[in-house]
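Hello forum,

I keep getting stuck at the same step: I have a sequence, I want structure tokens, and every attempt I make locally crashes halfway through. Rather than fight my setup again tonight, could one of you with a working pipeline run this one for me? It's a single chain of 223 residues.
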Amino acid sequence: MPNLKLVPKYAATDGLFTAQSTLGVIPLDGSLVEGGKFNGGDLSYKVSLTSTTAETGTITIFGEDQYGNTISEDIAAPNNNTRESVKYFNKILRVFRSNMVGAGNITGNITGKCVSTWIKPSEQGFNGISWDINSYNTEGTENVCTYLLEHTLSALGKGHPEPRNINTHDAFITSNADDPVSGNIDGNYGWPPNGYRIRVVDYTGLPGNEATTIEFNSKVVSV
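Reply #2:
Ran it on my machine without issues. Output:
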């Protein structure tokens, strides 16, 4: 199985767009946007919308999942708070606001909640994996990340929607490269899973814009 080395994107605020009062298409002008769109690379992210005033209306996020399938989600405008999407977006191509009432002080960002691409086992006939994972920042100092290991029996790839039957295992926490977490918790299924992935529930310990690096090493085993 391929190993993953992931660097989640991070912005303190306004990663997708700065405060907008636009009705209709919202310009993607945030710090994580390049060429008018957001590209998550090997990770897909939840979207967060924040306002410091009372807002109403609907914000629609248009984008793609990791396989290039078109996805979208309607999010109620934040009312002096933060709201986040249910879906994970690998690419964000357009944001649209309708039925606007309020001052329009809404900003858009990605959250610390993200998922890796699905890892498809290269060998057949195995029903589990052995794994280890660690995380650290560019200075090599401690970053605390909360992860979930997930697997699915659903078909994966272009033309297939996000799997509905995602099986989630217990959360585990790791700090830095000197303190990896390892185990073998995935197995004993009737047939081999089609894919595994890491879901980052949240990460902390990010001084400034120093990136967190997540390393996930795994191999298929018989359990």
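Residues 17 and 72 are 17 Å apart (CA to CA). If your local run keeps crashing, start a new thread with the error log.
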